[in-house]
Design a protein that fits this description.
heterodimer, A: 421 residues, alpha+beta, 3 domains, nine-stranded mixed beta sheet, B: 164 residues, Muramoyl-pentapeptide Carboxypeptidase, domain 2, five-stranded mixed beta sheet, 5 strands
């Protein structure tokens, strides 16, 4: 993971402090917050330093306020709780904007790791606190204290740390301490942003259970609706289903895409945090889990709900897609049915027309035969008036034959002209 | 005052709650206006729509059934809204599922709770007030507060919007 070290501009106060406050601020409020810090110092014993770190997917330069108190030539004990609560509140009042994270570091100094462990143990006993995680990094003992209270939704991310450099050489201890502090300041910034992102989306992420359930129920109802016969559902009902499905689909698509954007941001921050912890190469100490493992899994737990949300929303989208496909298939089947019905009715009509035409043709023959017979009768009455009756009767079959021949001739001509056309 | 009159002259389309563009414009125009003024505007928008529905559907009476009829018509095609109870003088409207206002707010980076407070609730209060101006709207449950759904109880009372 790329971490832009060249962008870090950190001016550590000299010496080894007994306390360090790291306050990360949301990037939009930095100018206002830091202008007030630059104008005044919280108290004579507190030194301020600003850490500039490149943070976030947009590459926004993000600042962290770092304040160190009781800068002395190193103390071989850890500060008592009451000795820094006043400074902390003074610092809080200095920062105009609400921080996204506050890391408090209690600092000691020891000659060797064993002495550092003893120092930590006695401090925990005196302060009546317990450890969450412990490890060794940059020749410093690094411990995270158990949270005092559970975080309220409006609170920034809070971490209480203990750092005890254990190099025999004081200058070396100071150097290693500030190197670790720089990493912790960057971490406070990344972690604060990730925590804030999760906090901002918490209400929406919380909605997933109930909203998924009710959307699922609605989808099931729509499926039931589609299964109803066409006559019952009607075109209006189908239109309603389509409108509803489209609305749901577009809502879910928007939600999924926005959450994907946030998930990408969160993942990017998580990668930076993980990479930072990896660069610390923290070694375990005693039976405690390392700070890296505990913190990394905590930050992973902040990112997981985003992924969960996207997957569940996408599952609903897939179902809605199935609904849309079902509506399309349903409409296709209905159209096919109508086509078959139309085809059947037109075939009946054609058969009726053909038989009607045949009747007409027969009628035509009879009419023509009648006229020929009448004409024959006129001829017979003129030529042989006495036998005209018998001759006319005898002429009828011939007239029918002539009529049939004429009809065939005429219709053959008609067929030929139709074929030509 | 002149500027204010111009600002408040926009008319909300019927589908404002699923229309991100309208919500975005609404936010841009009203973000600096005092909440009480925006609420009044939203209430009047709801009232106007409610009256047009009453007139078009020839809804008579001022009881629960009449209130429910107006709500049903206004929320036609909105899958997250459902009337779960109709009493003699009350109606319970439940919005469950993914809130369209939340979706739009999320996609445009708008404040969700603000939109509910100054636009959503006063609008629906106004809508039902077209049937009975003395109707109270009580928000029993709110998704913007972390509840699983939004329950709007409309009850004949003193014409107030109540947020417990």
């Amino acid at each position: 993971m790329h971490l832009n070290r060249s962008a870090l501009r950190f001016r550590p106060p000299g010496g080894l402090p007994s306390l360090v406050y790291i306050i990360a601020l949301p990037e939009r409020s930095i100018a206002r917050a830091f202008s007030s810090v630059a104008l005044s110092r919280p108290s004579p014993e507190i030194e301020l330093a600003l850490s500039f770190a490149e943070v976030g997917v947009e590459g926004v330069e993000h600042r962290v306020l770092l304040a160190a108190s009781n800068l002395k030539r190193g103390q071989r004990s850890l500060p008592l709780e009451k000795s820094y609560s006043g400074s902390a509140s003074k610092l809080d009042s200095l920062v105009a904007e609400k921080p996204i994270s506050i890391f408090t570091i209690r600092v000691g100094w020891a000659h060797g790791l064993e002495e550092a462990r003893l120092l930590l143990k006695s401090h925990l006993k005196d302060a009546n606190r317990s450890l969450k995680s412990l490890g060794v990094a940059h020749e410093c003992l690094l411990a995270t204290l158990e949270d005092r209270d559970s975080l309220s939704p409006s609170q920034p991310l809070v971490r209480e740390l203990i750092v005890i450099p254990y190099s025999h050489d004081f200058e070396e201890a100071v150097h290693e301490f500030w190197r670790l502090c720089e990493d912790l300041a960057t971490l406070a910034s990344y972690a604060g942003r990730l925590y804030k992102l999760k906090l901002d989306r918490n209400l929406i992420l919380m909605q997933i259970d109930s909203s998924e359930k009710s959307t699922q129920m609605r989808i099931n109802e729509i499926f039931v609706d589609i299964r109803r016969p066409m006559e019952e559902l009607g075109l209006e009902g189908l239109e309603g289903v389509l409108r509803e499905v489209t609305t749901l689909f577009s809502n879910l698509s928007i939600l999924a895409s926005v959450m994907r954007r946030d998930y990408v941001k969160a993942q990017s921050l998580l990668r930076r945090i993980t990479s930072l912890y990896e660069s610390l190469s923290e070694a375990p100490l005693g039976h405690y889990p390392t700070n890296s493992s505990v913190e990394t899994s905590y930050y992973e737990s902040l990112v997981a709900p985003f992924k969960d949300f996207i997957e569940r929303v996408n599952a609903l989208r897939v179902q809605l897609d199935t609904v849309l496909n079902a509506v399309r298939t349903y409409l296709g089947i209905q159209r096919q049915k109508l086509g078959i019905e139309e085809q059947a009715s037109s075939r009946d009509l054609l058969a009726r027309l053909v038989s009607l035409q045949e009747i007409l043709h027969k009628l035509e023959i009879l009419i023509v035969a009648f006229y020929i017979t009448e004409m024959g009768k006129l001829v017979f009455e003129a030529v042989a008036p006495r036998e005209s009756g018998i001759l006319t009767v005898a002429f009828i079959p011939l007239a029918l034959l002539i009529s049939t021949a004429i009809q065939r001739l005429l219709h053959r001509n008609e067929r030929v002209s139709v074929d030509r056309d | 005052m002149y500027v204010q009159l111009i600002t408040l002259s926009i008319t909300l389309p019927r589908d404002w709650f699923v229309n991100p563009q309208v919500l975005s414009e609404f936010y841009e125009r009203f973000k600096d206006v005092p909440p009480e003024e925006i609420k009044r505007f939203s209430y009047n928008q709801g009232l106007a729509l409610g009256r047009s529905i009453v007139e078009r559907l020839k809804i008579e009476g001022d009881d629960g059934e009449a209130m429910a009829a107006v709500l049903r018509e206004a929320l036609k095609g909105e899958p997250t809204a459902r009337i779960v109870h109709v009493g003699k003088r009350s109606v319970l409207l439940r919005n469950s599922g993914f809130c369209p206002l939340m979706t739009a707010a999320l996609s445009l980076g708008l404040p969700w709770a603000w939109l509910c407070e100054v636009l959503g609730w006063p609008f629906f209060h106004g809508l039902v007030s077209a049937v009975n101006p003395k109707v109270d709207m009580k928000m029993i449950r709110r998704r913007a507060k972390g509840d699983p759904c939004c329950d709007h109880l409309f009850e004949v009372g003193e014409g107030r919007l109540i947020l417990p």
